[in-house]
Amino acid sequence: MLKRVPMSKLKSLIKKKAHIRIGTAADAMVELNVLLFLHSLAEEARTKAFEEKSATIKACHVKAVCKKLLKQARG
Questions:
Q1: What residues have CB less than 8 Å from 27, skipping those under 6 apart?
Q2: Domain residue spans in the chain?
Q3: Name one GO molecular function term (predicted).
Q4: Which of 32, 10, 35, 5 is CA-nearest to residue 22?
């Protein structure tokens, strides 16, 4: 199971962008977006592993799906 990112670290990373106004709940939204991305990555990797008739999700399945999901997330 993944550990949560400490809120102080997350807030400091967000505040580095000084020219952007950040709301009070921005850290929670960032954490939720990361969790949603990881969930979709796991689902796509599971589908890729199933297509290759593999019982376990391997690193090659995640790498194959990662490029596609990052392109979708950016634009």
A1: 7, 10, 11, 14
A2: 39-75
A3: DNA binding
A4: 10
Orientation of helix 26-51 relative to helix 7-15, angle to 10°: 100
Q: What is the pTM of this model?
A: 0.69
pLDDT tens digits for range 14-67: 777 767 777 778 777 888 888 888 898 999 999 999 999 998 999 988 998 988
Q: How many Å apart are CA 25 and CA 66, to the nearest integer?
A: 28
| Biggest alpha carbon–alpha carbon distance for the chain | 49
Of the chain, the end-to-end C-alpha distance in Å amounts to 29
**5 Cα distance to chain centroid:** 12
Q: What is the DSSP letter of 24?
A: T
DSSP SS3 for 3 = coil
Six token digits for residue 6: 């400490």
